[in-house]
Amino acid sequence: MTEWSNPEEVQRDYAVFERMMFVLLGVCVWEVFATCDFEWSILTRRRKFKWPLVTFFFLSRYCIVLAFIGLILSLSVTTKALYTFNSWAGNMTILSSSTSLMLRTIALWERQYTVMIPLGLFCAGHWAWLYRTMFIVQADWDDNQRACIVVQASPSILNATFFLTMVFDGVILTFTAFALFKKHTARTDLWKLLFRDGLVYFLVTFSGNCIPAVLNLLNLNSEYIFLFNF
Questions:
Q1: CA-CA-CA-CA torsion sign (197, 202, 207, 212)
Q2: pTM of the model
């Protein structure tokens, strides 16, 4: 059985973490360039600018790139400001993505108050909680390591953050699925329902939040937690 806290295992996991950051940054940058026609259509006014949805879309799209750049920099540069920036960029990606999905769900329900009010309240609480967690990482200078190291990160708050995000995305997924199934007949093609109507994106988002939530509870080692948190 693998001893996850073994120094050799931690070192191997750290090497995986380093390589994965570069891979994920490359994927994000490729995706931005491959789909940049959306931004171009906004700039050339071929597509109407709808500030709530487009703003959150841009934030989630570019904050994740900034988060990975910050993480790669933190492999060689250690400052409290960089840790805070990484936390801000990562949380803004989560918040903007969830809010974008929520706005689409509200549109599917044709802005019914019975859907808008509970989702809006849940969203406000989600923003308040994640905004608070942007600044929980405490780092101090260590003379022995000649670097700025994390001395406090409040793991219980991080666990609550992942489960709150997972629950919020689960609620959005439920509302979206119910709205889509109501609009379609029993003969509706499942492929069309999943991909053309976008239900698969809600499923992927919900599933993606399950991984860091479970790993935070297992607490295998710090490198695995960092790897799947981002």
A1: positive
A2: 0.79
